Amino acid sequence: MQNSTPPPSQKSALGHIRVLDLSRVLAGPWCSQNLADLGAEVIKIERPSGGDDTRQWGPPYLRDADGNNTSEAAYYLCANRGKRAITVDISTPQGQEIIRELAKQSDVVIENYKVDQLKKYGLDYASLKQVKTDLIYCSITGFGQTGPYAHRAGYDFIIQGMGGLMSLTGERDELAGGGPQKAGVAITDLMTGMYATVAILAALSHRDRCGEGQYIDMALLDVQVAMLANMGSNYLTSGNAPKRWGNAHPNIVPYQSFTTSDSHIIVAAGNDAQYQKFVQIGGMPELADDDRFISNPLRVKHRDLLVPILADMVRRKSKQEWIDSLESAGVPCGPINNLEEVFQDPQVIARQLQRELPHPTAGSVPLVANPIRMSATPIEYQNPPPLLSEHTTTCLRDLLHFDDEKIAKLKRDGII
């Protein structure tokens, strides 16, 4: 059967690509949402009873015009815009056949089931490659398809610990509140989704040149270790494991957060001149000439003496007073904003990072924009995160040419 992907859109980078998305929760859906934002047709496959787990991961939930909670949790909304939603019970032979037929007409399959779980359904790469020889198939798991941990379930929080990120994040052990901390968002899931997006785009480029599909094995642990970046390189070069520094910097002082009279700021004085301006603005010019603090190496050496003095100095002014005076003097600084302040920030507003899309039950849904800016094929925000099974009938009718009687029987039998 020929791929029935619609003709490429002139305004969409991936308008010629169809993605069959069997993933749920965050890493896989984040990847497929990236592809949808870039114009790909993404068909999200969910189980008939409940769908993607994140639909129920609330509160908060999206509210309708009367202020009542809908069935869509905010967590689900963050990673599923632009997709079409189908419910299929893949544990049944009929459901498996539907997935095979859809895979036949797709360019990419994404899944995040446990290792070998889809093999028993005939929906693994080796099986689907038989019906679509140039298929690109991306599996996302906690630990990958090989190795002693391959069959373990992988969760972002656990991987942040195992992969070293939490050893670098958090206040120093000897200070109050010290100890390892996870990041405030599921950063390993998100980065795995981003790496998976890159891998799929590379595989599509290879397929278009050579006509060959391929299998992509993505693991959260692999991604977490890779994204240690300079810290990983520091360890491999020196043999010394880096320690936590909280919001401070191991090699620059002052380069950290401070509490103001009403909030918090970050001061990043990367050279002596910037440090001198900082303490002058703070009304303590004598600190600029103090022999113990006159150069950055000396400030690093005496940080435990200097930082408490600077902290007392910063508390004397408000966040905005510090930002205004430091920016005008050319001292790198910034506020630590809560999310209300983030979405009210003039730069965030100017860049249109909050978007509203029409929603069938809530009227509209607020979403965060994709940060990719492309001149010839810009991101188009057309469809909100779909309701559970919203497109089951239309997709089966349009793509697989099922008639109304067959669709009705599949619904009665609980297959869709």
Could you name the CATH class of the largest domain?
Alpha Beta
Mean pLDDT: 95
CATH topological fold name of the largest domain: Rossmann fold
Number of helices: 18
The number of strands is: 13
CATH architect. name of the largest domain: 3-Layer(aba) Sandwich
**Helix fraction?**
25-40%
Biggest sheet layout: 6 strands, parallel
Q: What structural category characterises the helix and strand content?
A: alpha/beta
* Strands side by side in the biggest sheet: 5-2-1-6-7-8
Task: State Rg.
Answer: 26 Å
The proportion of strand residues reads: 15-25%
Number of domains: 2
Estimate the global geometry from the Cα principal axes. Answer: elongated
CATH superfamily of the largest domain: Crotonobetainyl-coa:carnitine coa-transferase, domain 1
Q: Which runs of at least 5 residues are low in confidence (pLDDT < 50)? A: 1-8
Terminal-residue CA separation: 23 Å
Keywords: Transferase
InterPro entries: CoA-transferase_III_domain (IPR050483), CoA-Trfase_fam_III (IPR003673), CoA-Trfase_III_dom3_sf (IPR044855), CoA-Trfase_III_dom_1_sf (IPR023606)
Protein name: CoA transferase
Organism: Undibacterium macrobrachii
